[in-house]
Design brief:
Distance between the termini: 53 Å
Strand content: under 5%
Number of helices: 4
Number of domains: 1
Largest sheet: none
Radius of gyration: 15 Å
């Protein structure tokens, strides 16, 4: 019996994570376009690596607080951290460019403390 092409794709958790990462990619792409930063900017691999490390911690904290359950909220959590790391790498990110979300901003602040 030949296995189906994507058996993992039927798992609800895998479907959820795929949606999360798709949303993250789209939000990140839009932010970089707004900032007029090339997706090939030499700083981005370092920024993404640092963001991922902090995002993993932030997602745990957000989950404990029953936040960032929806795909777009999880992606926004990532985007808040990504923007902060961009700033740390001398890429200007205006404060008002991100959609406001007090709870997610609070989690990010906690992670950076």
């Amino acid at each position: 019996m030949k296995p189906s092409k994507d058996e993992w794709g039927r798992d609800p958790q895998v479907q959820y994570l795929r949606k999360v990462f798709s949303c993250i990619e789209e939000m990140q792409k839009n932010l970089l376009q707004q900032l007029k930063v090339s997706p090939f900017d030499y700083r981005l691999p370092r920024v993404r690596e640092a963001t991922l490390s902090l995002f993993e911690k932030a997602w745990v904290i957000a989950s404990r607080k029953d936040l960032a359950q929806k795909e777009d909220e999880v992606a926004l959590l990532y985007l808040y951290i990504f923007a902060r790391i961009l700033r740390a790498n001398r890429i200007s990110v205006p404060e008002d460019i991100l959609p406001p979300h007090k709870e997610i901003a609070s989690v990010v602040k906690e992670v950076f403390s």
